[in-house]
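User: quick one, fold this
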Amino acid sequence: MGDILHALPAVSALRAAQPQLEIGWLVEERWLPLLRSRPNAAPLSHLPRSNAQPLVDFIHCSNLALWRRSWLSSATRSGLAQLIRELRAQHYDAVIDFQGALRSGFLARLTCAHDIDIYGEDSPREWIARYLFSHRVRTTGSHVIEQDLELASAFAATPLPYTPPLLPHDDEARQWSRKQMHERPLVLMNPGAGWGAKCWPAERYGRVAQALFAMGLTVLVNAGPAERGLANQVATESAGAARVVEPTLQQLIELTRLSALFIGGDTGPLHLAAALEVPTVAIFGPTDPARNGPFANRAVILRSHRSQRNHARKSAPEAGLLTITPAEVLAAARNLLGHTL
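Assistant:
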């Protein structure tokens, strides 16, 4: 989810600079709502641009998360073969690999029914992927959004500015989201993250929720897949001030759009809030916000000087993260809410 959201400004800039381009996106199926609000509205690869699909002309879905569990099965071979046929049938002239992974580079190469330009970073996330690129771009930006813009600029042969990303709209999801607000300004919290070391304690989220609720705000706790227990713990620690929601991805987009403030750690919903330019309190620990923190929105980034970059995926909260207090988070929230209070 984060990789897609970080790449969206670059593709949005490319769309603005060269509106005549026909752009396709190869996406993992579960993240399709970041590009199209109604996944089953039409065949996946053909739908005119609209509010429901504002950015790309073609969408191709992979299911690598499922396929890699059984590469040799007939279902995997059939699904991969169908995807390759679909990609080649579009006769793309170029591919930009924003992910910089071996699997994304491999799929880019498989689209080569003809000689095709493949753009990727000279020093990608997975170093071996660079050998799959025909155009290796030396990026200098510290933030991944800046690096993605440099990749798109290399293809466009002109510098592209940061452009607010185009995300789909969904009227039904928006109506659902409005019902959650109870006619009060909305604060959306997301206590979960990819691994435990990035998770600020639930008890502290609960204390912040209590204070915000007392200020006249609705506080919702987003529960992603497998995060219901953590979200319930925040709600319990808030003494009923916060309420748990389990939105679909379409609903999460619209709920975030309506939020006056987002509070959370380094995870997909944080990047969604940043993409939608929602004021954000970002609580960072073992990951570096200079690389993947909020980029263009109003944000307060809290990170201890004791925290060091570490992607070891440990389960216990990182020591530096634990030095961040509820009082600091609440002060940052007050600062960002400003006239809303």
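User: anything notable?
Assistant: The first strand starts at residue 24 and ends at 28.
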